[in-house]
């Protein structure tokens, strides 16, 4: 998508601190972290939100969770704990209309959030 900031990051038009990349997803550190470890995992295919998942693209979500599992192990936070967040829609706090999952770790994350 032409004006999508995450599509621009994937294409290299906007710099990011890449953590992981494969043919389906891109992971990078958040520029405004809310925890000592805070990264996002996004599909390379532009999918606006969880509402836009369908039988043709739903498999990317399981792949994203496989990548998250790999990354939290690699970063050494899998045993202590972490939070995965997906915001959907305006009331859900989604500010970029490209499906993405935040992963936050290395601090005590309180409940309820926000």
UniProtKB/TrEMBL annotation:
<dbReference type="InterPro" id="IPR019808">
    <property type="entry name" value="Histidine_triad_CS"/>
</dbReference>
<dbReference type="InterPro" id="IPR001310">
    <property type="entry name" value="Histidine_triad_HIT"/>
</dbReference>
<dbReference type="InterPro" id="IPR011146">
    <property type="entry name" value="HIT-like"/>
</dbReference>
<dbReference type="InterPro" id="IPR036265">
    <property type="entry name" value="HIT-like_sf"/>
</dbReference>
<feature type="active site" description="Tele-AMP-histidine intermediate">
    <location>
        <position position="100"/>
    </location>
</feature>
<dbReference type="GO" id="GO:0003824">
    <property type="term" value="F:catalytic activity"/>
</dbReference>
<feature type="domain" description="HIT">
    <location>
        <begin position="5"/>
        <end position="114"/>
    </location>
</feature>
<feature type="short sequence motif" description="Histidine triad motif">
    <location>
        <begin position="98"/>
        <end position="102"/>
    </location>
</feature>
<protein>
    <submittedName>
        <fullName>Histidine triad (HIT) family protein</fullName>
    </submittedName>
</protein>
<dbReference type="Pfam" id="PF11969">
    <property type="entry name" value="DcpS_C"/>
</dbReference>
